[in-house]
Amino acid sequence: MRLLSAGVALIAGGTAALAQTATTAGHGAPNPWQITMQEPVTEIAQNINLFHNWLLWIITAISLFVLALLIYVVVKFNERANPTPSRTTHNTLLEVAWTVVPVLILVSIAIPSFRILRQQLVIPQHDVVVKATGRSWYWEYEYPSDQGGFRFEQRIIAEADDQAKAKPGPKGEPRLLAVDNELVLPVNKVVRLQVTGGDVLHAFAMPSFGIKIDAVPGRLNETWFRAEREGVYYGQCSELCGQYHAYMPIAIRVVSEQDYGRWLEQAKTKFARIDGAADVKLAAVAR
Ligand SMILES: [Cu+2]
To answer: What are the angstrom distances between the C-alpha of 93 and each of 9, 251, 266?
Structure first.
């Protein structure tokens, strides 16, 4: 009985802790003991969640159906229950059914799958453009000339000499996800995200936005998002890229339009300009 009440207290405590983490950590990071997907904050992430749940129904139904068939066969057609085996080799109706039904199931998976893929890759009229470059082992962001014209690096918070010794951020940001410079973007605006690799393959992944896109050297991949809630959202490099692959997190702070304007003004003076560098490169090409 004592064990039972201790168990109940543990579960209640765990639920309270979970609720507390959910409110303090915002919507953009995994919670302890979480088994569902991260809370979606874009329309695409919501559609991915719905698609995931639809697939769960389908695979559950198929698994139960196959299990029922197996049990039926074991019980009905074992040697004892069925001493004279049937010599049937073909059944046209059955063969048509087991071809047509799986085709219909696959079509019901393919339609929402391709719809989401199209939604991710066909970019609507954008408000902001940001270029993310994956490097070993950090991210670099560029706001092009008409959006501010600066660039900065985003690195994990760690002991100065060792990336692998990741620390929680100064404001209690989660270890392994806390970064020095967050990527700041406005809420409810279409952000066009350009992704490339600076040295080897990386991948830009942000679960609560429904984004995972490869960062390939020499190639510019594009996608987009419109975050519907302010907050700090965390993601990670999702393509094995070398020794410190696990230590190049992504942090996006989504803020109101006014706060974004204020941050842009500061960022223009704080970070390195790219306008000059771009002009020099163009001049070199012209020559
Ligand atoms: Cu990586």
So the answer is: 57, 56, 71
**Would residue 11 count as lying in a domain?**
no
Q: Output the CA 245–ligand 1 centroid distance in Å.
A: 4
Give the range of the structural domain holding residue 67, as residue numbers without chain letter. Answer: 43-82+91-121
Could you tell me if residue 10 is inside a domain?
no
Distance 201 CA to ligand 1 centre (A): 7
DSSP code, position 172 = -
Q: Give, to the nearest 10 degrees, the angle between helix 92-121 and helix 43-76.
A: 160
* pTM value surpassing 0.85: no
Domain with residue 266: its CATH number is 2.60.40.420
Tell me the CA–centroid distance for residue 129 and ligand 1, in Å. Answer: 23
3-state percent breakdown (helix, strand, coil) of the chain, nearest 5 = 45, 25, 30
Q: What domain count does the chain have?
A: 2
User: Residues in the chain with pLDDT < 50?
Assistant: 1-26, 278-281, 283, 286-287
Same domain? For 175 and 114 the reply is no
DSSP category for residue 127: S
Check residue 277 and give its pLDDT.
52
Contact 244/137 with Cβ under 8 angstroms? Answer: yes
161 in a structural domain: yes
